Amino acid sequence: MSGEAKLVYDDGLTAYDFGGGHPMSPIRVQLTIRLARELGILDQLTVVPAPMADDELLRTVHTAEYVDAVRRAGANPDVPDEQHGLGTDDTYCFPGMHEASARIAGASVEAARSVWQGEVLHAANVAGGLHHAMPNRASGFCVYNDPAIAIQWLLDNGAERVAYVDVDVHHGDGVQEVFYNDPRVLTVSLHESPTTLFPGTGSAGETGGPGAEGSAVNIPLPPGTGDAGWLRAFHAIVPDVLRAFRPSILVTQHGCDSHVEDPLAHLTKTVDGQRAAYLALHDLAHELTGGKWVATGGGGYAIIDVVPRAWSHLLAIVAGKPVDPQTPVPEAWREEVQIRFGRVAPLRMTDGRDPEYVDWSSGYNPGAWLDRSIKATRDVSFPLLGLDPTY
Q1: Is residue 360 included in any domain, yes or no?
Q2: Which residues pair with 190 in a beta bridge?
């Protein structure tokens, strides 16, 4: 056990529901919690209900105008508000939108508060990670930006330096936008290239605004990047920039839409590679922040075969008792999937892959798109953080 850990969760978090057929289904969170319970992971966590963020807390990141617009959208879901990104093709309106979204924000703040005030070492909100929401508009299925609100709470309550690492397949554009000019926050995002995937941002050259140069680190990855390439990029950049920044606390976003089976993107990671990333972030939290770690969910749209296993691994690591990848998926959970969805669920907590990678120190291959991307990020970001990109 690496220290007492908390999960902020109650069924109200799955009221965030854009309706049948939308990829951002609350079923993925429900199935995650049920699988984690069957595996005994929840027995290792203190589980507490999610408080609802009030307007004052939401307005630390979002404008008052936008919060009012979200409340109106939830009361009148048939009336789109394109100015605020509500009722668009990706972010539908639904009854109670404000309340459901504010509860997810409150859950992430509660996780951050629990860690920062020393109640637990680690805390998680797997329903969170809604990283695309902007201060005055919704975007990419995200209404309120819970990671940004949690980070702002940490800053307002004494955290001197907060590091945010986003491993979702999509660029963490909303969190970057909120803190782009704030040198107290380091945002690091590994994502599919903006030339091939929404939101079209996150190039290596986005490094932070005036007075905060080096506070944004972006690692755009080629389509088709799998476990070995993703982990090569991660280890070539993330540990070094976090060590240079010296964070007081680590906040992470764990969208698992980088998986090969995800229907909305083009990377080829496995659950095994995702688990390796979670373990690496856990270890960096213990190396650099005394273990202070806040983990959120994020994207992930292979809602049966991928999301529940990936996030159950995450919760087990948060709890300090990682699940062996060879562990059988509990039969009761597999039966529920068969009955509810007519699907044959995975047999084990692994995709049968060994997430090995070749370390950057082995040499640079200029003929590989991946290596050119890694080098571009190192070349522009490392000097701004006092690091040698050639090391």
Answers
A1: no
A2: 219
Residue 124 lies in a domain: yes
Over range 33-41, report the average pLDDT.
Answer: 98
CA nearest neighbour of 208 among 231, 176, 180, 242: 180
For 39-84, the pLDDT digits (tens) are 999 999 999 999 999 999 999 999 999 999 999 999 999 999 999 9
Q: What integer pLDDT is reported at residue 301 of this predicted model?
A: 97
pLDDT in tens, 110-154: 999 999 999 999 999 999 999 999 999 999 999 999 999 999 999
CATH number, position 314: 3.40.800.20
Q: Does 390 fall in a domain?
A: no
Those residues whose C-beta lies under 8 Å from the C-beta of residue 283, and which sit 6 or more positions away, are none
Cα(38)–Cα(45) distance, rounded to whole angstroms? Answer: 13
Return the amino acid letter for 318: V
Q: From CA 50, how far away is CA 39, in angstroms rounded?
A: 22
Tell me if 137 sits within 8 A of 85, measured CB to CB.
yes
Q: Cα separation of 3 and 17, whole Å?
A: 34
The pair phi, psi for residue 46, each rounded to 5°, is -80, 115
Q: Is 367 helix (H, G, I), strand (E, B) or coil?
A: coil
Residue 115 to residue 121: CA distance in whole angstroms: 5
Residue 149, Cβ density class (10 Å: 0-12 exposed, 13-18 middle, ≥19 buried) = buried
Domain count, the chain: 1
| 85 neighbors 63 (Cβ within 8 angstroms) | no
Q: Catalytic residues, which ones?
A: 132
Residue 50 CA to residue 199 CA, distance in Å, equals 29
Measured CA to CA, the distance from residue 267 to residue 225 in angstroms comes to 5
Distance CA 166, CA 172 (A): 6
Range of the domain at 97: 5-353+365-385
Domain-located, residue 358? no
Around Cβ 211, how many Cβ atoms within 10 Å? 9
Residue 272, CB half-sphere, CA atoms under 13 Å: how many?
A: 16
How far from 131 is each of 146, 298, 304, CA to CA, in Å?
Answer: 7, 7, 22
